[in-house]
Amino acid sequence: MDVDWSKTNQGRKYYNAQAAEDFAAAGVSHVRIRIADLASGDLLEGLDRQIADCLEHGLLPVIAYQADDFKNDPDEKNVQKVVDWWSKVARRYQDTSYLLSFDLLIEATDALNKQPEALNELYEKLVTEIRKTNPERIIMISPRLRSDAAYLHELEIPSAHNGYLMAEWHFYASGPSKTNDRKLWTTGSDHERSLIDEKIALALAWQKETGIPTWVGAWMPGNYNDGNDYTIEEQVAFASYMTRQLTAAGIPFSVNSDTKFYDRKANEWIPEMEPVFNCIYH
Predict the structure, then answer these.
(1) What SUPFAM superfamilies is this protein classified in (predicted)?
(2) Helix 41-57 vs helix 76-92: angle between axes, to the nearest 10 degrees?
(3) Could you tell me which residues are beta bridge partners of residue 32?
(4) What is the structure's pLDDT at 16?
């Protein structure tokens, strides 16, 4: 599950250990903790608690960094900002369980979409830096155009990867659409299912070619941020097919996101979303 525990002011305010316990008890195996802000003392202290709570309750934590300045303008100064951020985080968690992993960049977008070479150069620098303190930490890299599997082939494998490397890709990260041909889902027709299967096939082919495992860092069962016009039954149909196909391919995934399923103020699951949650996690 993608979580906002460290991403937003509300997420940081309402996070407590009960959330990690509830997620684990409900069948969630890992959480992708997204971060947009500087690695300040307050942010890192909160992240310390979240990671410790995850490990205590059997959740695998993934730290994922947004790096907006770099995505908007991938110049040398902004590259160094990202290197400094990860250097600080890597040093802080160098003695933490290797069940914690590092997801280097949340979706290459904006100016970066036109500069795949800048993305590869960043990964080379980041992995080299992180390996100074975390020689066997799992590190995740992702391709451009919002981590589209069609661009996995452009990734250059960082020289210091040390065998502990995954590639992350996304599809339907903001949910399916009833009108957008690229992520169409209405009745679950053969064509609509093929759009899902084609992306999975691209990832499997790249895995076979490189020997590097992949996972899906974000997909959303409904278009919650864009009208939310899928019924619960329609969401269940879409989510069931996604879950079945990814599981059959042996590709782990993270669902976007926690606040759609879990009331963080009350520490309770949202009743009307339980059919969607259950078809994914049970």
Answers:
(1) (Trans)glycosidases
(2) 50
(3) 2, 62
(4) 97
**HEC profile of the chain:** CEECCCCCHHHHHHCCHHHHHHHHHCCCCEEEEEECCCCCHHHHHHHHHHHHHHHHHCCEEEEEECCHHHHHCCCHHHHHHHHHHHHHHHHHCCCCCCCCEEECCCCCCHHHHHCHHHHHHHHHHHHHHHCCCCCCCCEEECCHHHHCHHHHHHCCCCCCCCCCEEEEEECCCCCCECCCHHHECCCCCHHHHHHHHHHHHHHHHHHHHHCCCEEEEEECCCCCCCCCCCCHHHHHHHHHHHHHHHHHHCCCEEECCHHHCEECCCCEECHHHHHHHHHHHC
Q: Is the alpha carbon torsion for 142, 67, 74, 89 positive or negative?
A: negative
82, 70 contact by CB (below 8 A): yes
Q: Please say whether the beta carbons of 263 and 270 come within 8 A.
A: yes
pTM over 0.85, yes/no: yes
> What percentage of the chain has pLDDT greater than the value 70?
100
Residue 137 to residue 127: CA distance in whole angstroms: 10
